[in-house]
Amino acid sequence: MTTLPIALSCGEPAGIGPELAVLAWSELKETLPFFLIGDPAHLPPGTPITEIATPKDAVLASADTLPILVHRFAAPATPGVPAPENAKGVIDVIARGVELVTSGAASALCTNPIHKKALKDGAEFAYPGHTEYLAALTGVDRVVMMLAGPDLKVVPVTIHIALLEVPKALTAELLTETLKITHAGLIRDFGIDAPRIAVAGLNPHAGEGGTMGTEDSDLIAPVLETLRAQGMRIIGPLPADTMFHARARSSYDVAVCMYHDQALIPIKTLDFDRGVNVTLGLPFVRTSPDHGTAFDIAGKGIAKPDSLIEALKLADKMAKTRE
């Protein structure tokens, strides 16, 4: 456990974030202190809370109550129905969390899920998602999304674009920067001195000698060869369909994949509830549960806090590694 608490942003108040925060606190309490940034009125009725003045107050308060750094919103929260008036509050809470962690008041930032359409509709949010907004707030040109689970870590090189667009977006520069940021993140945030990186090919059978596409031999392989010559432990490009069984997973620390589903299908198949979204390349530790706002089950008392709990635990572990 770090000496400072973790900041947890409230996310979309009409989603499952408020109830997950309470469930996570009930599980962790004094073993892993964190504080919620948000509006107490959005929490489930009867939640025991302490309104704190500074993050350090959360360490003592969390043993008996959920510490909350109050950020008032414009409207109440109705489960499943986002209010446009609250969009600015959601955005401002994220910025407030970044300010706290970059100033050293909190050890890490964990973010509850946001609903990007609600933010665009209510506040003209100009970013594709959390990750890009966090990068903009900290002046970082490029960051990397990692999904981390108990048995697998994956990094998609391209993320939320149509499959048709992947070959166009996949460049030597993008692949090189993704691999370097991933390599540095495994050392700095996970304490792996000499990371082993497995890289998936773009095409079936990694192109099979050019008979199923030439991107693997013409683009991916030269990048890997260059980075190997610089001392990085990289294998690939590998056929993606043979990379994720247990024996294969034991041979590497992270799998770098060429597109979204190539990376996310295996990790969600292995452990759907405990995956954690990690942003590598930021000047602070940031994690998030690997799920959305789940409007369809918000307020019904059936949401599972497993991913948020794992995200808080991993944030704590990464912060300790950085220390």
UniProtKB/TrEMBL annotation:
Top EC category: oxidoreductase
A GO molecular function annotation here is: 4-hydroxythreonine-4-phosphate dehydrogenase activity
Could you say which residues bind substrate here? Answer: 130-131, 268, 277, 286
So, what pathway does this thing act in? Answer: Cofactor biosynthesis; pyridoxine 5'-phosphate biosynthesis; pyridoxine 5'-phosphate from D-erythrose 4-phosphate: step 4/5
Name its co-factor(s).
Zn(2+); Mg(2+); Co(2+)
Catalytic activity reads: 4-(phosphooxy)-L-threonine + NAD(+) = 3-amino-2-oxopropyl phosphate + CO2 + NADH
Presence of the UniProt keyword Cytoplasm in the record: yes
Q: Where in the cell is it found?
A: Cytoplasm
**Which keywords fit this entry according to its UniProt record?**
Cobalt, Cytoplasm, Magnesium, Metal-binding, NAD, NADP, Oxidoreductase, Pyridoxine biosynthesis, Zinc
Q: What is its main location?
A: cytoplasm
- What InterPro entries does this protein map onto? PdxA (IPR037510), PdxA_fam (IPR005255)
> What are its E.C. numbers?
1.1.1.262
More details: The active site is located at the dimer interface.
Query: What is the role of the protein in this entry?
Result: Catalyzes the NAD(P)-dependent oxidation of 4-(phosphooxy)-L-threonine (HTP) into 2-amino-3-oxo-4-(phosphooxy)butyric acid which spontaneously decarboxylates to form 3-amino-2-oxopropyl phosphate (AHAP).
Q: Which PANTHER family match?
A: 4-HYDROXYTHREONINE-4-PHOSPHATE DEHYDROGENASE, D-THREONATE 4-PHOSPHATE DEHYDROGENASE
Q: Which family does it belong to?
A: Belongs to the PdxA family.
Please report the name of this protein according to its UniProt entry: 4-hydroxythreonine-4-phosphate dehydrogenase
Source organism of this protein record: Pseudohalocynthiibacter aestuariivivens
The gene it comes from is pdxA
